[in-house]
Amino acid sequence: MTAGGGVLRNQIRGVTGALVVSGVTILLTVEMWWLARQRPASNMIAYAVIGLGVVLFITRSSGFRVEEEDENNPEYDPVRLTVNFAELVLQSVVAAVVVLFVYGVIDASSSLHVVARTALLQVVPLGFGAALANRLLHEAEDGDDDSAEERTLHENVAVFAAGAIFFSLPLGASIEMNILAANADWPRMAAIIALSLLITYLILYELEFRGQSRRRSEERERREMIIQAGQTCIVYAVGVGVSALLLWGFGYLTFTLAVNVQKVVVLSFPTTVGGAAARVIL
Q1: 101-113 pLDDT, tens per residue?
Q2: Nearest-CA neighbor of 268 among 245, 252, 258, 226?
Q3: Residues 262 and 176 grouped into a single domain
Q4: Cα dihedral angle (201, 206, 209, 213), rounded to 10 degrees?
Q5: Are 208 and 214 in contact (CB under 8 A)?
Q6: Are 213 and 145 in contact (CB under 8 A)?
Q7: Alpha-carbon distance values, 70 to 65, 75, 76, 79, 144 (Å)
Q8: Which of 139, 157, 177 finishes a domain?
Q9: Distance CA 130, CA 2 (A)
Q10: Is 139 left (phi over 0), alpha (psi -120 to 50) or beta?
Q11: Model confidence pTM above 0.85
């Protein structure tokens, strides 16, 4: 892999890790949207400074990435620490803006002021997620085994379903799904589906999180793309099934077919991310 490719992969891993570790729940919470628009600027700045200061302290104390540790020189170089922290903030902002834009919480008509305030509010919890992801879900080493490769299809489906339920259960019971579904037209739902499939594919095959074998890079050259696409679609299908089950269980699937489909698609992103994350973690 080229140096540029490695840097890009690290950035995408941080963005994805922020979603996996912190969860999508914090992004899709109506109170967070309200606070971003209503809280005084002084409160927002104080919250961001203090919160990011704690993130910086954790990053400085525990290390940003395992591969950057040096036993002979445990002290971080200030320049490297600054660069790493800036990357972490950028990863958090990108994760927040992309997801909220796809869901329509912010859009092209939103003022830069609103977008900045929204990103500022979300950057602290997502910053914790990105820091933990870079530390705990670090890049796979050559000797790592991918236990998911040894599981049967039924076992993998069970893991996907467990992750999907654990990740999205609070959202399934929340009113936010109704709010987001009411504003989700068909192009927006297509964007949510595309983002779900993209994040799932990246987690499963491209980002090489801990627990995945790098040997898969060689296997990938011999493996048909249709197999990877099929596995990605299986995760998404499980996510859709879990979404429908949760919404039905909470009594939210009582409207027309079109409205019910909107709700299922809206919830399918967190369930799919949870299912894919479970394959990395479990």
Answers
A1: 999 999 989 999 9
A2: 245
A3: yes
A4: 110
A5: yes
A6: yes
A7: 11, 8, 9, 16, 21
A8: 139
A9: 23
A10: beta
A11: no
The amino acid that residue 235 corresponds to is V
| Residues 21 and 78 occupy one common structural domain | yes
Within its chain, how far is the Cα of 111 from the centroid? 25
Calpha distance 151→159 (Å, rounded): 10
CA atoms within 13 A on the CB side of 265: 24
- ∠ CA(132), CA(137), CA(143), 5° rounding? 150
Tokens of 208: 């090489």
pLDDT digits (tens, 9 = 90+) for 166-199: 989 888 888 888 899 988 899 999 999 999 999 9
Side chain identity at 182, as an amino acid letter?
A: A
- Report d(CA 164, CA 109) in Å as an integer: 33
Q: 139 - beta bridge partners?
A: 209
Sign of CA dihedral 188, 191, 193, 195: negative
Residue 152: per-residue pLDDT = 75
Q: Which two structure tokens, joined as six digits, stand for 72?
A: 């002979």
Say yes or no: 102 and 225 in one domain.
no
- 104-129: burial string, b at 16+ Cβ within 10 Å, e else: ebbeeeeeeeebebbbbbbbbbbbbb
